[in-house]
Specification:
By secondary structure, this protein is of the alpha/beta class. The protein has one domain: TIM Barrel (Alpha-Beta Barrel), CATH 3.20.20. Helices cover 30% and strands 19% of the residues. It contains 6 helices and 9 strands; from the N terminus they run ββββαβαβαβααβαβ. Bound molecules: iron/sulfur cluster (SF4). The site of iron/sulfur cluster has 10 residues, from loops. Residues 28, 30-32, 35, 37, 82-83, 111, 149 line the site of iron/sulfur cluster (SF4).
């Protein structure tokens, strides 16, 4: 039976399939048209992912993880009801804890804006810490991305995502960029070319509205 640790009722971790997902944060520099946070307090997989007030510290997240049988899961996935890179240093610390306590497959699901969020070459810090990175591409040009995702970084967002992805490809065994299946075929094809230009794998994911 699933066990949930609560901070103000929000799930810090939740199970999906054979993986364990970590709800790192509710912060995000984007305001995507399709963000499921606009209409819901959770997802298909966890009832509530909104932290009321303070988000859990890295130590509280680690205590939650350490209380689980981590070897049961095929992967441990950093994500968020928000963008996990907003807590980049905490996430790297947690990766180190996981590495020190077993051989877990570690993935990060991200919007790829880590270098603008942190102001550093964040992709270099993935080396040895992370097995896979999944980056939402969402659009094929800076203008289309801006129209869809309304990043606070404006037109700088898209090239920064590509720089981060290219860096991740050099430091992480499995790197993919994703788009949703509901996009027009021509835009999916254009995104595929962008993805190939930075050396990442391309993945078309199902759109989840809740
Ligand atoms: S990047 Fe993700 S969390 Fe942030 S607004 Fe877009 S869909 Fe929502």
């Amino acid at each position: 039976m699933e066990r949930k640790c609560k901070v103000e009722s929000a799930s810090i971790t939740y199970e999906y399939g054979t993986g364990l997902y970590i709800n790192m944060t509710n912060q995000c520099p984007n305001n995507c048209n399709f963000c499921l946070r606009k209409n819901s307090s959770g997802s298909l997989y966890a009832e509530n992912l909104w932290y009321q007030g303070k988000e859990p510290s890295k130590e509280e997240i680690w205590a939650e993880l350490a209380g689980r049988e981590l070897n049961r899961y095929t992967e441990i996935v950093f994500c968020g009801y928000g963008e996990p890179a907003c807590r980049w240093d905490d996430m790297m610390w947690l990766c180190d804890q996981l590495r020190a306590h077993g051989s877990h497959f570690i993935r990060i699901n991200t919007n790829g804006l880590a270098e603008l969020i942190t102001g550093k070459r964040a992709s270099l810090e993935l080396d040895g810490r992370v097995d896979a990175v999944s980056i939402s591409l969402n659009a094929s040009t800076p203008e289309k991305y801006d129209k869809l995702c309304h990043s606070k970084f404006g037109l700088e967002a898209f090239p920064a995502i590509l720089r981060f992805t290219a860096g991740a490809v050099l430091n992480v065994p499995h790197v993919r960029m994703t788009v949703v299946s509901t996009m027009p075929k021509e835009e999916i094809d254009a995104c595929r070319k962008v993805c190939e230009s930075v050396g990442a794998d391309f993945y078309i994911r199902e759109y989840i509205s809740k």
